[in-house]
Amino acid sequence: MYKVVNFINKYIRLYWTTLRINKKKGNWFTRGADIVLVLTTRCNLHCDYCPMFLDSPKYPKFDECTIEEWKTFVEDYPEWLSQIYISGGEPSLIPWVSEFINWLIDRGHHVILFTNLHKPETFLTIKRHWRFVCKPTLHEECGIDKKKRDKFFDGLETLRDKFRIIFQELGKGKYFDSDKKPFYNDDFWYNTDKHIHAMPDSPRTGKIYEGCVAGYKDGKP
After folding, report:
1. For the residues of 12-54, what is the DSSP string, one character each?
2. Mean pLDDT score of the chain
3. DSSP state of 126
């Protein structure tokens, strides 16, 4: 039974969540590209695992682009972007992030938002939709004290009734749903043919990266 459930999670559900739901840049029933949009490298935390600290204790310096530039980037991308991760840094520091996510949802993209819930109120205007998932992240063993942990769970309560929420605690190596029960393994999200990263200045430079490490290393400390 476990093998059947694992197969459904890893392949069938993966296929449907990355399916093109409109005939843009391809056929109806083919998967599109899977991309992470790093809107900013600014963050209120300094987790020691974070790739932005690989080469320097300072944040890599990228020019942040406007919402209009990101929209053009998505529209002009040569492939249909089936699944889009909104990441950082901390996306709640971008004032137009909710407007941008709503625009992506309206276009037909699946959107997964990564956040440490620093400013959960920023996300309250995101529309409730089956193609949107909020994935708050708590890194318990990376310098997160009780005050920051409590703030995280307060933010979780703020959004719990509005969105489909899946949160993860990387420090324990386990993944949880909003009821704190084991839910799935990491392969579900990342086992795609093309998982690429666009950094904060990608709409201007045209650069994309194979994985986040390559993107952060390209930053100038």
Report:
1. IHHHHHTB--S-SSS-TTSB-EEEEEE-----S---TT-GGGS
2. 76
3. S
| 112: three-class secondary structure by DSSP | strand
Pick the CATH number of 2-217 from 1.10.3720, 1.10.3470, 3.30.420, 3.20.20: 3.20.20
Domain ranges of the chain: 2-217
Percentage with pLDDT > 90 across the chain:
29
Residue 101 makes CB contacts below 8 A (sequence gap 6+) with 86, 111, 113, 126, 132
Per-residue pLDDT of 31-41, as tens digits, reads: 677 899 999 99
Record the pTM. Answer: 0.79
Please tell me which of 99-108, 134-143, 205-214 the model is most confident about, judged by mean pLDDT: 99-108
d(CA 16, CA 130): 12
